[in-house]
Design goal:
Radius of gyration: 18 Å
Strand order of the largest sheet: 2-1-3-4-5
Structural class: alpha/beta
CATH architecture: 3-Layer(aba) Sandwich
Distance between the termini: 42 Å
Largest sheet: 5 strands, mixed
CATH superfamily: ABC-type transport auxiliary lipoprotein component
Mean pLDDT: 75
Low-confidence stretches: 5-9, 14-19
């Protein structure tokens, strides 16, 4: 009888811990500077996981390689959201963060970021940011600001 109770308690704890587990997210950074892109990707991963908002998918390099392969076939310079969602499903992600550094305008660096729901195929959060970035600390601060705006609500 004790063994059954211990087994049931263990199963209950496992199920309840999985129910409270943060959603999985894949991170994709676009831009013309691969060194800065990698830095931003690492900053996004840190920002998303620091407070437990998300669990970042482990196979990020594979995800980015698949997306880059598709990107090289397209002439528009943009990757179709449907393809990104397809690749994220293969990784087991529930969400995808797409982060794009746009061309500098009037001395400011515009950034467009959005979170896509893999299940629904919709944009659940979108953030636009623009500012002057003269150092990696400026980039880090911008990423943190954008992440705060993207994760401001627990309704994801």
């Amino acid at each position: 009888m004790k063994k059954i109770l211990v087994l049931l308690a263990g199963i209950f704890m496992l199920v309840s811990s999985r129910a409270q587990e943060a959603p999985k997210i894949a991170v994709l950074v676009y831009g013309n500077n691969s060194g800065v892109n990698e830095f931003i990707q690492n900053e996004l991963i840190t920002a998303f996981t620091d407070d437990g908002t998300y669990i970042v998918c482990e196979r990020q390099e594979e995800f980015i390689a698949l997306i880059n392969k598709e990107h090289s076939f397209q002439q528009s310079g943009m990757v179709d959201d449907r393809y990104i969602i397809q690749m994220a499903k293969k990784l087991g992600a529930e969400y995808v963060c797409c982060f794009k550094m746009l061309d500098i305008v009037f001395g400011e660096q515009p950034i467009a970021a959005r979170i896509l729901s893999v299940e629904k195929g919709t944009v659940v959060r979108s953030v636009q940011w623009s500012g002057v970035m003269n150092s990696m600390n400026d980039v880090r601060a911008a990423v943190k600001t954008i992440c705060r705006k993207m994760t401001r609500s627990s309704d994801l």
